[in-house]
Amino acid sequence: MTLSTTKIEILDAAQDIIQLRGYNGFSFADISQTVGIRKASIHHHFSSKAALGLAVIRRYREVFNRFLSEANSKGSTWIEKIHQYAKLYENTLLQNKLCLCGMLASDIETLPKILKKELREFFNDNVVWLSNVIKVQFKSMPDKHLHKIAWHIISSLQGGIMLARMQGQKEIFPSIWDALNLYLKNLK
Q: Does residue 57 contact residue 104 with C-beta atoms inside 8 Å?
């Protein structure tokens, strides 16, 4: 199914605003102003803010998962794949944004239930992918330990872009990656 140009513009605007200000920091009025359409036109495509938020997360998750699938098919080493994963975060930081789902996670207590569910599924996708990448190198490592390492990677990268953006010092992120990379290379 092909999305209309207007629907894509609405999704793009919502994603940009959420990545800058969070779920509670945007409204249909913001989208209307950004896209240059009436609020009623947004309601034509999305019945509610939650419906729009859900569509944004699902699209982001689909793009993210497509990237992860492509990274798997490139035949890189496990550490190179994780570096490619880290580059996703770094590219987001270079756009002066935060990861959409990381930003939404900070709003978790106020999100509608359906958004919480989709957000958790996004992070679960990441844990599974990272665990599988690491398992290639450490075949006998228990799944529970692999998942802990995956969460360590995710939290380091999420925190790295958050702190780098907060401080206005993008060079913080590479230092986080360097420490994470050292940790990964010393795994046993």
A: yes
